[in-house]
Amino acid sequence: MSKTLFVRGIRSSTHKKINDEANKKGITAASILEDAFEKWFKDQKDLPKKHFAVLYSDEQSLLNFMLKVKEALGDEWLHVCFGPSSHFAIKFLEKHGWNNVTIQPFSQVQKKTSSYVKRIFDLRSKAAKKKPVASMGFITEHLAHTNSFKKANWVEGSYNNCRSAGIAFCPYDTKYMKEATLNDKMEMFGLHDKVLIVKKMMCLNWM
């Protein structure tokens, strides 16, 4: 059964193009809009929703990796980052055109973890409605080092419950991995689609 849909705010030039094309092909303007909507829905379903852990052995290796990520994805993607302002990677990403969406003060992530990360996830999800997002998030690394791996893993799992279009990278300095129990490490690996090991300017696909 067909329904009536009112489309407001459409540009007059676009409206004219739709009507001209409909008349040329002997179809209705509604059928053109319906095809456009179907294509949009299909594109939304086809967008990746990936979640990667990135284990890095040194600062330079991570910086090189992040440069290659932006180069590989290009301007079709929105590049965002979040984490403590003192982190070397956050400073680097800001200088290289990544949008820092960290909510200040960052210290609230310790006592209000649930509400804080929800706001970050909501920002990412809102941005992903316009274009796929590549995010470098250092919240979980920070929590793993300053609080516990259990809390970091809780945040990783929370993101999996509300993934948005694009690729979420979660870097971890390998020196912090020594602070985790075997169970915590295995849980963290399982919460990601892949675990990438970045060492001496090389990227190894481990899992």
In short:
This protein is an alpha/beta fold and 207 residues long.
Low-confidence stretches: 39-45
CATH fourth-tier homologous superfamily of the largest domain = Protein of unknown function DUF257
How many strands appear in the DSSP assignment?
A: 7
With strands numbered from the N-terminus, the spatial order across the biggest sheet is 3-2-4-5-1-6-7
Count of discrete domains: 2
Number of helices: 10
Structural class assignment? alpha/beta
**SSE order, one letter for each helix or strand:** HHEHEHEHHEHHEHHEE
Major beta sheet summary: 7 strands, mixed
How big is the Rg?
Answer: 21 Å
Shape: elongated
Approximate strand percentage? 15-25%
| Share of residues in helices | 40-55%
Reading off the top of the CATH hierarchy, the class of the largest domain is best stated as Alpha Beta
Give the terminus-to-terminus CA distance: 48 Å
Which fold name corresponds to the CATH topology of the largest domain?
A: Rossmann fold
Overall mean pLDDT: 84
| Name given to the CATH architecture of the largest domain | 3-Layer(aba) Sandwich
SSE layout:
Elements lengths: L11 H14 L3 H18 L2 E8 L2 H15 L4 E5 L5 H8 L3 E2 L7 H4 L1 H16 L4 E5 L1 H8 L2 H12 L5 E8 H4 L4 H9 L3 E6 L2 E4 L2
Parallel strand pairs: 1-5, 1-6, 2-3, 2-4, 4-5
Antiparallel strand pairs: 6-7
Helix pairs in contact: 1-2, 3-4, 7-8, 8-10
